[in-house]
Design a protein that fits this description.
Elements (H helix, E strand, L loop, with lengths): L1 H15 L12 H6 L17 H11 L2 H6 L24 E3 L10 E4 L21 H5 L4 H18 L3 E2 L23 H16 L6 E5 L11 E4 L2 H6 L1 H12 L3 E4 L3 E2 L2 E2 L4 H11 L5 E4 L8 H6 L13 H9 L4 H18 L13 H15 L1 E5 L13 E5 L7 E2 L30 E2 L3 H8 L4 E5 L4 H8 L4 E8 L16 H11 L3 E7 L13 E4 L7 H9 L30 H4 L7 H6 L4 E4 L8 H6 L17 E9 L4 E9 L5 E10 L10 E10 L4 E8 L6 E3 L4 E3 L3 E8 L7 E7 L1
Parallel strand pairs: 2-3, 4-6, 5-7, 5-18, 6-9, 11-14, 11-15, 15-16, 16-17
Antiparallel strand pairs: 1-2, 7-8, 10-17, 12-13, 19-20, 20-23, 21-22, 21-26, 24-25, 26-27
The structure holds beta-D-glucopyranose.
Length: 752
């Protein structure tokens, strides 16, 4: 309660100082004038007992060619564009497709919302910044993912949007990918399970859900031009599996195709990805929307399965109409696109529950954000029980580095959520936030620490000079050194080394004070040449707008950490499948001068990236290559300890793994129990894979027997000859434990 009050009063101060941030989620007067709702829909399609498909067909029957075409494209980026007749009804997000006003079908009003609703500050509104998606992934908690998505859905709706552009699930093939924070880790089963729940949460608020970026957008460098080369089996068992689970279990209304090429074709005109796999094999009934500017053709994209071009209308407006009139695109193909869009609107409920602006509850948002961060923080090291801190024993605390006096860093790009009151370290007078700059949320670890150790003298050192930092740390009862690595869409990290000489600062502080705690604020794995020196290490990710309170609760033990790594932390870049990231040649980087229609269609000239590691992504790679890692996938400590016993595996249609987890320590905790499988030799995959997991909440000394159901697909391989999943008959070893390298229980069963 104390921490809640503390964070809220900070919030209030900033809040009321900011005239632009209207608590009522207001819109400007001129905005409001443009927000005329279409008439309430009244046609036969409003019979809610009909299926979304039937309802879509009833609307479709009434539509003119122009109305159909209008549903296939965007009208620019209302956030940046002046108000026009076409975008006037929009909510000034990044994308808008006009609906069918004559028939009462609303426009599709899209906003980025990866870890919160984007551009809220610039639009005079407010939204909660959740911890980065990767932090939520570290909770390995489907319920957390649901809550994450539901909060985003609620706030989108309250602002007036009816479609999210969240749901990022590209798996971590290269940990230097600048959007690693935007995604849910390196394992397809973990990421797919969580994204499905996130989508379910968002759609439960009657907002069109989205999953992106389909597919293999695994590096940002040259994302508009790169051609990813990868075999079918490899992609189906790795990157595509995350989407398959997300689509089949989460039922997103929309899929966003990515910028890059895959095996020769742009993802947004890739028949294999869009038609053969997504629409036919996975039976995806919704619509495919292009990433922003990711459309490159009319006929080819349409035939491949792209339904909606965003944000503009270069290929899917006049050119599309002309193609229909000329017969190069059939009426049936056009109707199929329109049907998919309409049926998704009915399925998500955006027609039955028209948008209605309301007041966002920032206090509820803070509470959700903090809870998710508390469940996502990963305790990587804790020697001699250095944590949790006992305030009664602390007289002096040195807080060092990373602007920990005023804020915590966030991830950049289209995911960026505007911080309350502006960038916490922005020089006064600097304007609105840019999509690619370091933005610090005003959540102060220093204050959170001081509040929990009121009698201690808490000093701050900026951590810019190793000697000064060491001097500040020396003699303090505890030194808490913060280090960060900012990351953003549109760029990759040059390396996994902490920037700004922070390694030297940490090493100097740890050498000066044996009771040094390192707190990392990163979205990506980082290397730690100093790993043996500090007493404790916490990975706090990008912690959202109440990150400091969450961190304070973990540091001082009112929350027992339970998060586990969704990404492997390698020892060095030399151990990665591709030690050097392939960068685009200059001509593949961007067009020089104005882009001609021909250039737009052809796209930037490709450069090749070949994923010859295939399906060996993350921990599978390190295991297969016998490369020891810094911190393994699935690893995370607690303030208590657990013991596993009694594994029994029941074969059957769904294999069931039953085992007991005991809390052997003196305080309550939640253990994430992980289930892996080794396939029979004939499968040709001599490394394990995650096939299930569950969270077990235990009081001190309590034990519980749990059962994890293993989806048969997670034990199967993708057989290219059959073009389908197949279970290889033979012996399967099921392993259970607390991380990918600590699996004390093992049972082999024969499956056919
Ligand atoms: C990003 C998408 C985003 C879109 C709209 C693109 O640059 O890749 O994730 O949804 O912009 O902002």
């Amino acid at each position: 309660m104390k921490s809640l009050r503390c964070s809220l009063c900070n919030f209030r101060v900033i809040f009321f100082a900011l005239p632009a941030l209207l608590f009522v989620c207001g819109v400007s007067q001129s905005d409001a004038q443009h927000h005329q709702q279409p008439p309430a829909p009244t046609g036969p399609w409003m019979n809610a007992s009909l299926s979304p498909d039937e309802r879509a067909d009833l609307v479709l029957k009434e539509m003119t060619l122009d109305e159909k075409i209008a549903l296939l494209h965007g009208v620019g980026m209302p956030t940046d564009d002046p108000v026009t007749p076409e975008n006037a009804a929009s909510n000034r997000g990044v994308g808008y497709a006009v609906g069918v006003p004559r028939l009462g079908i609303p426009g599709i009003d899209m906003s980025d919302a990866a870890y919160g609703v984007r551009s809220s500050g610039v639009n005079g509104r407010y939204s909660t910044a959740l911890p980065a998606n990767v932090a939520a992934a570290a909770s390995w908690d489907p319920e957390t993912a649901f809550e994450y998505g539901a909060l985003i859905g609620r706030e989108l709706r309250a602002q007036g949007f009816n479609m999210t552009l969240g749901g990022g699930v590209d798996i971590t093939r290269d940990p230097r990918n600048g959007r690693t924070f935007d995604y849910l880790g390196e394992d397809p089963v973990l990421a797919g399970t969580l994204v499905a729940k996130l989508i379910e949460g968002t759609q439960s608020e009657h907002v069109i859900g989205d999953i992106k970026h389909y597919a293999l957008n695994d590096q940002e460098s040259g994302r508009n031009s790169v051609n990813v080369n990868i075999g079918k089996r490899a992609m189906r068992e790795s990157d595509l599996l995350a989407f398959e689970i997300g689509v089949e279990k989460g039922h997103p209304a929309a899929v966003m195709c990515s910028y890059n090429r895959v095996n020769g074709d742009f993802a947004c005109e890739n028949k294999y990805l869009l038609s053969d796999v997504l629409k036919k094999d996975w039976k995806f009934p919704g619509f495919v929307v292009s990433d922003w500017g990711g459309t490159h053709s009319t006929e080819k994209a349409s035939a491949a399965g792209l339904d909606n071009e965003q944000p503009g209308k270069f290929f899917y407006s006049d050119k599309f109409k002309a193609a229909v009139e000329a017969g190069t695109i059939s009426q049936a193909e056009l109707d199929e696109h329109v049907h998919r869009i309409l049926r998704s609107m009915f399925a998500a409920g955006v027609i039955d529950y028209p948008r209605q602006r309301s007041v966002i509850d920032p206090f509820a948002g803070f509470a959700v954000s903090r809870k998710i961060e508390e469940g996502g923080i990963v305790l990587l090291k804790n020697e001699r029980a250095a944590l949790p801190l006992n305030p009664a024993k602390l007289h002096t605390i040195a807080v060092i580095g990373s602007h920990a006096d005023v804020g915590m860093i966030s991830g950049g790009g289209s995911a960026q959520v505007d911080p309350i009151g502006g960038n916490a370290i922005m020089p006064p007078g600097k304007g609105a936030t840019h999509w690619q700059e370091e933005i610090w949320f005003p959540t102060s670890p220093l204050k959170a620490i001081q509040a929990r150790a009121p009698n201690a003298n808490v000093k701050y050192d900026p951590g810019t000079d190793p000697a000064a930092a060491a001097a500040a740390a020396k003699g303090a009862d505890v030194a808490i050194v913060f280090a960060y690595m900012w990351a953003s869409e549109g760029m990759d990290l040059p390396s996994l080394t902490l920037p700004h000489d922070q390694d030297a600062v940490i090493a100097a502080v740890a050498a000066a004070n044996p009771h040094t705690i390192v707190v990392l604020e990163t979205g990506n794995p980082v290397t730690m040449p100093w790993v043996s020196a500090p007493a404790a290490i916490l990975e706090a990710w990008f912690g959202g707008n109440d990150g400091a309170e969450a961190l304070g609760n973990v540091l001082f033990g009112s929350v027992n950490p339970s998060g586990k790594l969704p990404n492997t932390f390698p020892k060095s870049e030399a151990d990665l499948p591709h030690p050097t990231l392939t960068m685009p040649p200059p001509e593949s980087e961007h067009f020089s001068g104005p882009v001609s229609p021909e250039q737009r269609a052809a796209g930037l000239p490709p450069f090749q990236v070949t994923y010859d590691e295939g399906l060996k992504v993350g921990y599978k790679w390190y295991e297969a290559e016998k490369k020891p890692v810094l911190f393994p996938f699935g690893f995370g400590l607690s303030y208590t300890t657990y013991r596993y016993s009694g594994l029994q595996v029941a074969p059957g249609e769904t294999v069931k793994a039953t085992f007991t987890v005991a809390n052997t320590g003196a305080r309550e905790g939640t253990e994430i129990a992980e289930v892996y499988a080794m396939l029979p030799d004939a499968a040709g995959e001599p490394f394990k894979r995650l096939v299930g997991f569950t969270r077990v909440k235990l009081d001190a000394k309590q034990k519980q027997t749990v059962t994890v159901d293993i989806d048969p697909k997670y034990l199967s391989i993708f057989d290219e000859a059959k073009d389908d999943w197949t279970l290889v008959p033979g012996d399967y070893t099921i392993l259970v434990g607390g991380s990918s390298v600590d699996l004390p229980l093992k049972v082999t069963v024969s499956l056919k």
